[in-house]
């Protein structure tokens, strides 16, 4: 099985999301550093938080990355034998060898609604 490995990074200065080779910014995979090459060919480090592609797509076909905010509908048991439908939102994280919450159910139920850098307000109750 071929697995696509991609990263994106958040540029705090310009408040933009960068692809792995966007606008001259590069990710050095052997060192994990993010930066760009100057006119003399020297690699200049910058700090950009990296987010890895999970290899999954949401119900709309959008790629799911670490740091994305996903939502889905779920039925919650009210304790009295009845359930109610609610919308759940969580941040995609990597831990325990899996991307959570995307490892708990098929990604076709998730919808990417933003990410922690551009849309942190979506996590407020």
What features would you describe in this structure?
The protein is mostly beta strands and 125 residues long. It is 0% helix and 50% strand. The chain has no helices and twelve strands. It has strands at residues 7-11, 16-19, 25-28, 33-37, 43-46, 50-57, 63-65, 68-77, 83-91, 93-95, 98-100, 111-115. It is elongated and about 70 Å long. The model has no long low-confidence stretch (mean pLDDT 84).
Distance between the termini: 40 Å
Mean pLDDT: 84
Order of helices and strands: EEEEEEEEEEEE
Structural class: mainly beta
Largest sheet features: 4 strands, antiparallel
Portion of residues in beta strands equals over 45%
- Strands of the widest sheet, in order across it, are 2-1-6-7
Write the layout of secondary structure elements.
Layout: E1 7-11, E2 16-19, E3 25-28, E4 33-37, E5 43-46, E6 50-57, E7 63-65, E8 68-77, E9 83-91, E10 93-95, E11 98-100, E12 111-115
């Amino acid at each position: 099985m071929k697995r696509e490995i991609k990263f994106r990074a958040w540029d705090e200065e310009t408040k933009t999301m960068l692809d792995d080779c966007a606008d001259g910014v590069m990710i050095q995979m052997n060192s994990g550093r993010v930066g760009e090459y100057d006119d003399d060919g020297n690699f200049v480090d910058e700090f950009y938080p990296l987010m890895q592609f999970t290899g999954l797509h949401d119900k709309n076909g959008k790629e799911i990355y670490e740091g994305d905010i996903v939502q889905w509908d779920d039925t919650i048991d009210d304790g009295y034998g009845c359930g109610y439908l609610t919308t759940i939102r969580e941040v995609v994280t990597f831990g325990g060898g899996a991307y959570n919450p995307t490892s708990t159910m098929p990604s076709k139920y998730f919808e990417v609604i933003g990410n922690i850098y551009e849309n942190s307000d979506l996590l407020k109750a």
